[in-house]
């Protein structure tokens, strides 16, 4: 591994921009992942690691696994702890960051949609919610996640970290809108998650494959045109005084019902 001693090094500057700018992530086709486990997951999943950054304090602490990561990565650098802080997105970092090529998941969808169970996300904005949904989707065996383009960036550091590596393994696609996606894939039985009293209770719902359950924005729920584009409306029964559920909680409950 080569040492970097200047914060003005182009590799450092690009990593800083990847951490903070979704626009730069889209333009470059790259994103960052932080932490030994997540970076190792990227390698084991076959993701293309463009650059590995290791802080001075991490070099000896994780020597064996870092040697494997360094051998797998196109290039690798050791940086001072001070410089590493510029590219880190966590308070208590392990001192390991990878720059990874954006994942091409589109080719897998044509096979999945013939007999799959899919979750679609309409304007989900919280990175923590999106990361948790990806993690739950992988854990329970959902075949694919579809995201509208106005969802938060799936490649943001918080989403990548919150997904616990699911972002590398779970097929996902990004579409213009969920309404358009449903129109382009009429063979999918679509279920809109809503709060309407006339919706079918989730426990009474028979998910007919291939199917897609659609989850909406944290504050506003699903757009009306998205609801209208769906075949069915479903709702999660709730007691107490709660008016709604967190998007990731609602998605996880629906995912569980889909795969039962």
Written overview of the protein:
The protein has 260 residues and is α/β, with parallel strands linked by helices. The chain folds into two domains: 2-101, 60s Ribosomal Protein L30, Chain: A (2-Layer Sandwich); 106-259, SPOUT methyltransferase, trefoil knot domain (Alpha/beta knot, 3-Layer(aba) Sandwich). 41% of the residues lie in helices and 22% in strands. The protein is built from 13 helices and twelve strands. A seven-stranded parallel β-sheet has the order 8-7-6-11-9-12-10, sandwiched between helices. A five-stranded mixed β-sheet has the order 1-4-3-5-2, sandwiched between helices. The longest helix has 14 residues, at 127-140.
**CATH architectural designation of the largest domain:** 3-Layer(aba) Sandwich
What is the name of the CATH superfamily of the largest domain?
Answer: SPOUT methyltransferase, trefoil knot domain
**Roughly how much helix do the residues carry, as a percent range?**
40-55%
Beta content comes to 15-25%
Biggest sheet character: 7 strands, parallel
CATH topology of the largest domain: Alpha/beta knot
Mean pLDDT, all residues: 92
From the spread of the alpha carbons, the general shape counts as elongated
